[in-house]
Amino acid sequence: MNNKKVAVSIYVFNFLEIGKKIDELIEAGMEWIHVDIMDGNFVNNYALCQKFCKDIKDKYPKIKVDAHMMCSNSEKYIESFAEAGCDYFIFHYETLTDKNPITVNNIINKIKSYNMKPIIALNPETSFEHIKTYCDDLYAVMCMNILPGFNGQKIIESSYSKINIINKYRKENNKVFKIMTDGGLREDTYKEILDAGADIVVVGAFVNVENNKLKGQFEKIKNYEIK
């Protein structure tokens, strides 16, 4: 068995049945919920908020919850998502109006000061080179395998090489940050994503299956032998 983690993107499910679905997912082995936060500016869509995260943590305190901030000026929401109980705060490098290293480090430290783990997300077109210097202070780097804002997209083929590049850098420099990926994970892509070096994978459609098949989907990832 490997040490890969699965974060379930709750956005893909029918919200009229979300409580029942979370119960089913937990029974099948879910330990982490990925919550997409969209403000209609950074991406052309809207989704979820602090209350949704708080409702999850109030009912399921042992479940890890991340807030994936697909919005402008996400740093101004650090405190409110911490108060909602989030364990991880994911912000996009592309959303930063001030990319001065001092500013970026201040954001990372602020996230930590609220007892959340900082994760920087990179869009497909954004080079890892931009954030190398912050890796020692991050819990993870998250590669977007698709364009942010809409689910159901196919993986962008260059994602595999990007994950490989980050993984190679991590090994050669004895770094301990995690590699996380979001988007495009399907039956025909999950093995290659894991082989490339991903430690944490966000899944949506992959677990949007009949209840009797849910556990098997988690096991495919957790039991996969990395090449």
UniProtKB/TrEMBL annotation:
<keyword id="KW-0479">Metal-binding</keyword>
<dbReference type="GO" id="GO:0046872">
    <property type="term" value="F:metal ion binding"/>
</dbReference>
<dbReference type="GO" id="GO:0005975">
    <property type="term" value="P:carbohydrate metabolic process"/>
</dbReference>
<keyword id="KW-0413">Isomerase</keyword>
<dbReference type="InterPro" id="IPR013785">
    <property type="entry name" value="Aldolase_TIM"/>
</dbReference>
<dbReference type="GO" id="GO:0016857">
    <property type="term" value="F:racemase and epimerase activity, acting on carbohydrates and derivatives"/>
</dbReference>
<dbReference type="Pfam" id="PF00834">
    <property type="entry name" value="Ribul_P_3_epim"/>
</dbReference>
<protein>
    <submittedName>
        <fullName>Pentose-5-phosphate-3-epimerase</fullName>
    </submittedName>
</protein>
<dbReference type="InterPro" id="IPR000056">
    <property type="entry name" value="Ribul_P_3_epim-like"/>
</dbReference>
<dbReference type="InterPro" id="IPR011060">
    <property type="entry name" value="RibuloseP-bd_barrel"/>
</dbReference>
